[in-house]
Design goal:
By secondary structure, the protein is an alpha+beta fold. It is about 25% helix and about 25% strand.
Length: about 1150
């Protein structure tokens, strides 16, 4: 390149450079572009808070639950509205309505029955509401109507339409002891917070063409309707095509299947499958020959052929049907169940089947036609609402069948029919529904008999480690893929996840890439009605499929129109149909979540309105200009417009993954070209809520951001405004949390700056002593004295004061008198009510609840109520931790079953010590290596001493340049008195930061002149010096420290127990054993593996080599040859277990005594 051509400067002009010729042409065009780029819309990101105000981060959970409670429940009732009896034809029970009330207590004697989620957490209750139905049924001859019959309880999701927190002001929430920043979207079941994770599934009712393990092509459809769910496959075997379904014992050739559906002539079949494509005709001919070979020509023959292979459940079949009738029924209701069949008109189903066969044929010749299972557009996400709806439907059907059985049982007896009232049964069985739902949510196991669905791990306990860990859990997506399989496909980062799923936030290890998180602006759709879409499609010129022949369907310009996987018809002008449809959607005539896209490979136009699709909002671009102008944004800031107005005016629209691939999306205004159809609202929204905390993530190596996503959830900080009112198993709280100096727009959007988890530490990047090797940190003692990294750990201990069936009950006893024999110092803190008071210090072994239990609590021990003295034994609760704790709170309350519940919260305050783990927001974790007096720390020429000294070797291999820029921006922010932004793909520019540093008399590169605290001489290099936001992580050395000399042993093997909690031993494993063998240290091996572990003396008979007992050999019946020797107890156990299996291990003794 010529010397006189100026190089583009970093920063300002670097964005203008599009190609290598730009610098050469600059002189001629005077720095102007040939076409002026579109002007940037300022503050366009203000759409984000507007979007999150409407949607919120966990809105998908809440929307889905609301839809279930307000819409789905009614549909389920409608589908199962009548219960009849086989015995008495006049008897019926009909449900006419259903609703869920507001959450209420079940305590009998309370006047005010409404309660808050906080009370449920404290009292270990389930936050739930009654389910009421309206019924109409016969009692004898008359018809009875009853309103508001309670049939069970439904757990209520927090912040949903049935929750008492919905729409409350901050002051109201404070009165209810709830945090206004808490996202909601979870359940409180038996006092624990449970989240139903978003589940990832392959989409239902869609044809997915795939290659199976043997390499042959398969087209699968997972049909799913309210009545049944089933999987139909059409696959290739020996170049012939077959249909496979669970309800048919063998694979059926497809031509026979089509003939059974009522298409008789081979010519019509060939036309429906192949159209006028001669290559396909040749490939398909084999199948037609096969049907002829099997001598099947008519529909009846085909039906009999299939009927002979149908698996019938003989128990249910009351009326015997002919084979053909059975086949007809299976074809109508089971195979491809989602394609409707009315009055045995199989036309639609046969066209659908022909389409599947055609897709298999085409895919045999062309690999491009095979679908990608991991493509996000082929996935659907199941939310709490859908899962609860499946569960409730299953329980409700069980409930109805129980009612029917009871009715039948009573109505069989002739004299009972008059006074039989089913209402009593209704109330009795309500518990089934309640306990079924609660069991599913608390165990996380969804077991549905009807759909043979058995899934575990659907719910998890909401992690309350920090505010961000709770948020991250609400946006998590879990896939039902086995974690143990080492398959890279589903784990890979798909290009189609752009903007929908966060690229950084996924765990390391076996769940890597299977557990994902939603991006910031993702929305998950709920089901929309199909009927209006169908009407609009026909108005826009879709021709009905039933009127067309195969040749017309596959004509060159014809595109098949599919609605949610089912066939609607054919359009001859696909692009025009799509653009008209989109105009109607933008005008608000159709729901904004309905998507339409063209698949040119398969020549289809797909309309989707089903739930569980991932979509996100984008700005519409027309004729090279975004529809949103600066005025719109100004109106939004002035609060004249809200986000929904942007949708209604057709300025912004939601696109799902499939429609995104039809669109041409510009990242910035300057990237808009004439073909652009959309513009990103903000590029940083491709990251999720957790990755959004990282400053300058686009300057870091990618795995570092992933590490930070895991560690950001373990940082100790604030968990909510109500954190001091909560009593949880374990709470970690930072004593002085600070908001970061360098924040991102995400931090403000998710309110992380109000509940932060970390502190701004002054960091010097230099090597200091040898205690900073391998990422260890040097901490300043005075900084720790002032409260840097200090945290509080609250632990909950609870106990029930029970009442027993025989009238006895537990009691809390006074402490023994100081002069009695019973007294010892562990009773020190106990007050007269048997519980230690708030603020009492507890040492290891101190008693804080002096509980006593009756010795006989069974029904048989003594006569209840008789004047007898009950003997009590001690069952005190002791404090186990080796470090002093203080009693923080004591709670007395009763559970639902009226047992007294006592919860005690114990507080420890911990300051950082050697071995505690810290991390910056760039995945740079390290433990504290040494704590140094401030006098020995280096200091800058302003007299500033660092809080942390970090080893510079942490930078080169990690490539976390974002950390360096954070230090620079933080330093500039401190000097300018203003928070800086490190938002992804933007943020405060390095150039501007350097200018601020120079203006305040600092070096532009952030380096300072530093003096050694030990020698008092200046250090020989300038030191990179400034504030970085550091997080203290929950891994503290106090909780991990463990050593043991002698201790407990396991009963079975008599070897030392395992684990810190059981005071276990330290295992000498296989690898350590191999090392010792390699060194030939055999006596050391013997000592470790036997003498120090489980040496055991056995008597062995020298004659037969078997183990004797007490100097006697059972086998030889003598004590002549008995010798004593030591073997490990585990070896003795193994010998005896082998003998029980009829294998006799014999020992050949050499030098035994």
């Amino acid at each position: 390149m010529a010397k006189d051509v100026p190089m583009p400067q970093a920063g300002k002009d670097a964005q203008d450079v599009k190609d290598g010729f730009e610098p050469l042409t600059r002189e001629y065009y005077d720095g102007k572009h040939m076409t002026e780029p579109v002007k940037e819309i300022k503050d366009k990101w203000k759409l984000l808070p507007a979007f999150l105000k409407v949607k919120g981060l966990v809105k998908q959970h809440i929307d889905s639950y609301d839809y279930f409670v307000n819409v789905e429940l009614r549909k389920i009732i409608k589908a199962n509205e009548k219960v009849t009896s086989d015995v008495d034809p006049n008897f019926y029970l009909k449900y006419t309505g259903i609703r869920v009330g507001m959450p209420e207590r079940t305590d009998a004697d309370v006047a005010n029955r409404s309660y808050t989620p906080h009370e449920c957490r404290l009292r270990d209750l389930t936050y739930s509401a009654n389910i009421f139905v309206d019924v109409e049924y016969t009692r004898g001859k008359q018809i009875v109507k009853r309103k508001n019959v309670n049939i069970g309880r439904m757990p209520v999701m927090l912040r949903s339409s049935h929750c008492v927190l919905r729409g409350k002001s901050e002051a109201d929430l404070a009165r209810m002891r709830e945090c206004p920043l808490d996202p909601g979207g979870y359940f409180v079941v038996k006092g624990t917070e449970k989240v139903i994770l978003v589940q990832e599934q392959l989409s239902k009712n869609r044809i997915i063409v795939d290659v199976d393990r043997k390499g042959s092509i398969v087209a699968n459809v997972q049909s799913s309707t309210h009545e049944r769910k089933s999987k139909t496959a059409i696959f290739v075997k020996n170049n012939k095509i077959y249909l496979r379904h669970n309800s048919i014992a063998e694979d059926v050739p497809v031509v026979i299947f089509l003939k059974a559906l009522g298409i008789m002539s081979d010519r019509e079949i060939a036309q429906l499958v192949c159209g006028n494509d001669h290559d396909l005709h040749d490939a398909f001919a084999v199948n037609i020959e096969e049907a002829a070979k099997l001598r099947i020509f008519s529909q009846l023959q085909a039906l009999e052929f299939i009927g002979a292979k149908v698996k019938v459940n003989r128990k249910l079949a009351t009326i015997r049907k002919t084979i053909a009738e059975e086949a007809l029924e299976v074809l109508a209701t089971v195979i491809l169940a989602h394609v409707p069949v009315e009055n045995l008109n199989f036309r639609e189903k046969s066209i659908y089947a022909a389409m599947m066969i055609r897709r298999v044929l085409v895919a045999m010749g062309d690999d491009v036609q095979v679908d990608d299972r991991d493509y996000v557009g082929n996935k659907r996400l199941e939310l709490a609402g859908q899962l609860l709806s499946l569960l409730f439907e299953d329980l409700f059907k069980k409930f109805n069948s129980d009612l029917k059985m009871n009715a039948d049982k009573v109505l069989k007896k002739p004299n009972r029919t008059q006074e039989f009232d089913i209402f009593n049964q209704l109330i009795l069985h309500g518990d089934h529904i309640t306990s079924g739902i609660i069991r599913a949510i608390s165990t996380g196991n969804w077991v549905l008999k009807r759909f043979k669905m058995d899934r575990a791990g659907i719910t998890q306990v909401l992690s309350r480690l920090s505010y961000i860990s709770a948020l991250g859990m609400m946006t998590r997506i879990s896939s039902q893929f086995e974690k143990t399989r080492k398959v890279s496909g589903p784990r890979a980062l798909q290009p189609s996840q752009w903007g929908m799923l966060c690229p950084s936030d996924t765990p390391e290890g076996e769940a890597c890439g299977l557990v994902k998180n939603l991006a910031l602006m993702t929305h998950i759709t709920t089901d929309d009605e199909e009927e209006p879409i169908r009407k609009i499609a026909f108005t826009l010129g879709v021709e009905d499929m039933n009127l067309l022949t195969g040749a017309e369907v596959y004509a060159p310009n014809a595109f098949i129109v599919l609605l949610n996987g089912g066939i609607l018809g054919v359009t001859r002008r696909a692009q025009r149909f799509v653009s008209d449809f989109r105009k109607l959607r933008r005008a608000g005539r159709i729901s904004e979540f309905v998507t339409v896209f063209v698949n040119t490979h398969q020549r289809t136009v797909n309309l989707s309105s089903d739930g569980g699709r991932i979509c996100r909002p984008l700005i519409i671009v027309e004729k090279g200009k975004p529809r949103i102008t600066q005025e719109h944004i100004n109106d939004l800031i002035a609060e004249k417009l809200v986000f929904d107005d942007f949708l209604k005016k057709g300025l912004v629209e939601y696109l799902d993954v499939n429609e995104e691939s039809d669109a041409n999306i510009a990242t910035y205004e300057r990237d808009i070209i004439p073909q652009s159809t959309h513009l990103e609202i903000e590029p940083f929204t491709i990251l999720g809520a957790v990755a959004g905390l990282i400053p300058y993530p686009h300057h870091n190596q990618s795995p570092r951001n992933t590490y930070q996503c895991a560690m950001g959830k373990q940082a100790i900080g604030a968990i909510g405004y109500n954190q001091l009112n909560r009593i949880e198993t374990l709470i970690y709280l930072m004593v002085y949390p600070q908001q970061p100096m360098v924040k991102s727009k995400t931090i403000e959007l998710i309110n992380y700056d109000k509940l932060p988890a970390g502190q701004n530490a002054t960091v010097a990047v230099m090597s200091y002593s040898g205690y900073d090797i391998e990422d260890a940190l040097v901490l300043n003692k005075s900084g720790l004295d002032r409260g840097f990294g200090r945290c509080q750990v609250m632990r909950k201990y609870s106990t029930l004061v029970k009442r027993y069936p025989n009238g006895t009950h537990d009691r809390l006893a006074d402490p023994p008198k100081p002069d009695s024999d019973m007294w010892n110092p562990s009773f020190d803190g106990i007050e007269q009510d048997g519980i230690a008071g708030v603020g009492e210090p507890l040492e290891s072994g101190s008693i804080f609840i002096n509980k006593q239990v009756p010795t006989g609590s069974g029904v048989d021990s003594g006569v209840a109520g008789a004047a007898q003295t009950v003997a009590y034994k001690h069952a005190p609760m002791r404090y186990k931790s080796p470090h002093t704790g203080y009693i923080d709170k004591v709670l007395f309350t009763t559970t639902e079953s009226d047992q007294t519940l006592i919860k005690v919260n114990i507080r420890q305050t911990r300051r950082p010590e050697l071995g505690d783990k810290f991390s910056s927001r760039h995945g740079q974790k390290g433990v504290c290596g040494i704590i140094v007096q401030q006098e020995d720390m280096p200091f800058s020429d302003l007299g500033v001493c660092p809080d942390i000294i970090m080893n510079p070797h942490g930078f080169p291999s990690r490539m976390t340049v974002g950390k360096m820029i954070e230090l620079l921006a933080g330093k500039a922010g401190v000097l300018a008195g203003k928070l800086q932004y490190g938002t992804a793909f933007g943020g405060s520019k390095v150039e501007d930061m350097s200018k601020i540093l120079i203006e305040h008399g600092f070096n532009y590169s952030g380096k300072d002149y530093v003096t050694s605290g030990i020698t008092g001489e200046p250090l020989s290099a300038y030191i990179f010096f400034g504030p970085i936001y550091y997080q203290k992580l929950k891994h503290m050395v106090i909780d991990k420290m463990h050593a043991r000399a002698r201790g407990p042993r396991a009963t079975l093997t008599r070897q030392p127990t395992e684990g810190r909690s059981r005071d276990g031993g330290l295992r000498l494993g296989e690898m350590e054993r191999d090392c010792l063998i390699g060194y030939g240290a055999s006596m050391l091996l013997l000592e470790r593996l036997m003498i120090s572990s489980d040496a055991f003396e056995v008597h062995v008979c020298d004659g037969c080599g078997l183990i004797g007992y007490a100097g006697w050999c059972q086998y030889c019946k003598s004590s002549k040859h008995i010798k004593t020797m030591q073997i490990p107890y585990a070896a003795k156990l193994l010998f005896q277990e082998l003998m029980a299996m009829n294998i006799s291990p014999r020992m050949i003794l050499d030098d035994a005594l």
